[in-house]
Each structure stands twice: as C-alpha cells, then as structure tokens.
Amino acid sequence: MTGRTGRDGWADEGVFEVASGVHRIPLPLPSDGLRAVNVYVVAGDDGPVLIDSGWAIAAAREQLGNGLRELGYELPDVRRFLVTHAHRDHYEQAVHLRREFGASVSLGAGEQPSLELLQRADGHPFDPQLRLLTALGAASLAETIAAQVVDVGADPEDWQSPDTWLQDGDIAIAGDRALTVVPTPGHTTGHVVFHDRADALLFTGDHVLPTITPSVGFEPVLSPTALSDFLGSLARVRQLPDALLLPAHGPVSPSVHARVDELLEHHDVRLAQTLGYVGAGADTGLDVASSLRWTRHERRLDELNPFNQLLALAETAAHLDLLVAQGRVTCAIEDGVRHYQAA
Predict the structure, then answer these.
(1) Which residues contact 151 (CB under 8 A, 6 or more apart)?
(2) Are 192 and 111 contacting, i.e. CB atoms less than 8 angstroms apart?
C-alpha cells in the first residue's frame, strides 16, 4: 500500500510507503491508549534497517513479520534496529528479535542509567513514580497503582543493553540513506531522533507527535529538568531544516516545524495555567493537576484511569519544577509532601 493514511486510520494494519524505500508498519499495543506504534522499515541491499521495533507481544510480531514479507523480507533479514528510546513499545521487540536472529540494536547513550536500573529488576517497577506521587500529595493514587501492578515486574532479559550507544552527530547508514543522530532529551533522558537531511525526513519517535503532547517525567531515572530539556530539544529540532514528520504514534504529517510550534505554544499556556492555579491557592501537585484539564477532551483528573492520572501528575511536576527553577514559584517540603507558592 502507499499513502500516509488519515488522522483516524493511521493505526490500521498494513504497510504504507512514506518515501522511496521507506515504509511504515503500525504494530498493535496491549492497551488501546496509544492504539499502535509505527515501525519504519528502510530498505537496503544487505537487509532492512528498522526504526523502533514495537512491544514484544505475539500480535506485534505477527504483523511485523507479515509487513516485512509484503516488502520481500523475513524477520531474520533485519540487519539493525535504530531505537529512539528505551520504552517498552519501542525497545522490547528489538531485544527479543536480536536474541533470536542476531540483528544489532542501537540506542541513545543517555538511556544507559535507565537501562542499568531496569536490568537490576529489584523493587516495584514504578518505584520512582510512586515516590513522586506521594511527594505531590497523591499518596492514595500511589497505593492504587502499587496494588494494580504488584505482579508486573521488569524482566531484566527485556532490557539488555544495545550493541551500540548512539552519540550526538553519529551517522547511521540505512540502505542508501545517511541518518544523523540528534539527541532530544525530555520524553526520556536519552531520546534521539533520526534526521535524513537529503530527503527531508525526520523520524521523531515520541519527541514530536502529531496529535498528542508527549509525556515528560515517566522513566526509571527521573530528571528534575525533564521539561526544560524537552523544550530545549524542541528548539533544537526547530532549527533543523523542516522535514516530513514520521512519528511513533499518529499519522505522518507534512511539517515538523508546524507541530513543534504547536507544542511550544501548548507548554507556554500550560506553564501560565500552572502558575495561575498556584497563585490562586493550589498548594500541592495534586491540587494543580486537579485544577487543570487533560487530553483534547478537556477531562478532569479524576476522569482519567490511574495510569493516566500518574502521567498527568508527572507532567504537572515537570511544569512546577521549571517554574521553581525560573524563580516564579517556591517549594517547601513538609512531611514528605511538596508545597508550592507563587514567588
């Protein structure tokens, strides 16, 4: 198949050409929150290179195999995985297929601390987030999440280290394409995007998404500068020549610059709203998150499921951290809970 598919049909099963020798294969996810993850197949004489890999579930493996077969390949033909970041829906299947067929795996060097923590597999898988929730005044939500995922631990085998740690400016060769590695910390500390300057393509992973705002603050090693890092990464991508937006979730879109401008505006508005609610008396992260509205449907915090409440609170914390760093908000800790006040 060719074409980009519309905003609503982007997750439909199939193989979609996005540029000469580059195809998008949407792979299913275990939950319907993100609907699917896009894996991009770059053709090469010595085998395809895949950008991101999908979650290691049977349905995703089957669809990836079917898609590669439609392009004239089999799973063992995959030569290399270029992975944008170490979240399960991007990284896990690459590790499994490497174990089985020997393809190499490359990942941004900034992900090393998170992988090292996941490889230890001790403690609750969401320990950093649970501690953050408690500090934000949401101890009851932390207890709910802890109980819901008590039997879901990280398997160290799913988080084996890559063959290659990618550095800023590295050139990854995929077929006849030279892809420049551009670090874009924020969504995760070691997130990278891949820039094909010659053909004006940008494989953006979760850094720039066309219909949703990427989460910040959800990774094993939390960063107090996640939002400022993310905004700086958006600015860096905005300085690159404009390109076709090839995201991990959502439809292919014509302009990276246009979407970056929207994301920057969104966070400007969010920072102003957060500061406004603190000034009006919202004392904790939970108070602020409960005052804000979430998703494009403008939902209240308590209308979200527990996991999405966690993401909302993590993003709220990231905005509060930046406001504190800017000197616009102060933070005092009392009995383990952060209390905020407009400066």
Answers:
(1) none
(2) no
* Cβ neighbours for 194, distance < 8 A, ≥ 6 positions apart: 51, 82, 84, 172, 179, 180, 181, 182, 202, 203
Does the pTM exceed 0.90?
yes
Convert the pLDDT of each residue in 11-22 to its tens digit. Answer: 999 999 999 999
Distance (Å, whole) CA 242 – CA 67: 29
* Residue reference for tokens 């494009």: 296
For residues 209-219, average pLDDT: 90
Q: How many residues does the chain have?
A: 343
CA-CA distance, 235 to 4, in Å (whole number)? 26
Instruction: Let me know if residue 309 belongs to a domain.
Output: no
CB-based contacts of 23, cutoff 8 Å, min separation 6: 15, 16, 17, 40, 41, 43, 67, 71
Could you tell me which residue, 54 or 154, shows the higher pLDDT? 54
260-317 pLDDT tens trace? 999 999 999 999 999 999 999 999 999 999 999 998 899 999 999 999 999 999 999 9
Measured distance CA(135)–CA(128) in Å, rounded: 11
- DSSP secondary structure string for all residues of 189-228: TT-EEEEETTTTEEEEETTS-SSSPPP-S-SSS--TTHHH
Is residue 213 in a domain?
A: yes
Give how many domains the chain has, as a whole number. Answer: 1
How does residue 6 score in pLDDT terms, banded at 50, 70 and 90? low
| Residue 144 maps to a domain | no
Q: For residue 28, what is the domain's CATH number?
A: 3.60.15.10
* Mean pLDDT rounded to a whole number for the chain: 93
**Per-residue burial over 291-309, b = 16 or more CB atoms within 10 Å of its CB, e = otherwise:** bbebeeeeeebeebeebbb
Q: Whole domain around residue 242: which residue ranges?
A: 16-125+162-255
Q: Is 115 part of a structural domain of the chain?
A: yes
68: number of Cβ within 10 Å: 22
pLDDT (average), residues 152-174: 90
Distance CA 175, CA 49 (A): 7
